[in-house]
Design goal:
Blueprint: H1 11-15, H2 32-47, H3 56-79, E1 82-84, E2 90-92, H4 94-112, H5 117-123, E3 125-126, E4 138-139
Antiparallel strand pairs: 1-2, 3-4
């Protein structure tokens, strides 16, 4: 039985699992809200140098969760957070549960995709000294 912390990923190990730097195709099954989020997030990932066709399924799942999250928010705006049960007692709307679940899913996907300061630090994004040129901000593919 080994003791201690597992070894950190090294550049050599990460180079062996590099992903193709190509644009994934937007799935045709995404609804309007999810499709708009696909367009937005793939543009940002492309600008960061992190867009890969290998991530198509992850991106599609994220966008689907985003779409459901937004739908839940709209339903809550229309119908409120509390509904009256058949027995006359107030209870949380099912949309509140959906919103909370999808928000957790969205945040998990965003972390996987590098959309938090901590995630970017773990991915060791190479931020160039010249921040005026966004084309110089690219993912190095290295994990610390």
């Amino acid at each position: 039985m080994s003791k201690g912390r597992p070894p950190k990923a090294t550049t050599e190990r990460m180079d062996a699992v590099s992903a193709p730097q190509s644009k994934p195709e937007k799935p045709n099954y995404l609804n309007d809200v999810a499709g708009e989020e696909w367009d937005r997030i793939t543009k940002v990932l492309d600008e960061m140098g992190m867009l890969s066709s290998a991530d198509q399924t992850t991106l599609a799942a994220y966008c689907e969760c985003w779409g459901r999250y937004r739908e839940a928010i709209e339903e809550i705006k229309l119908n409120g957070k509390v509904v009256v049960s058949k027995t006359g007692y107030p209870m949380p709307s099912a949309w509140v549960t959906i919103m909370q679940t999808e928000l957790k899913n969205v945040m998990s996907f965003l972390t996987q995709l590098g959309f938090s300061p901590a995630a970017r630090a773990r991915m060791a994004i190479d931020i160039q000294a010249n921040r005026d040129d966004p084309s110089k901000t690219k993912w190095t593919g290295k994990v610390r």
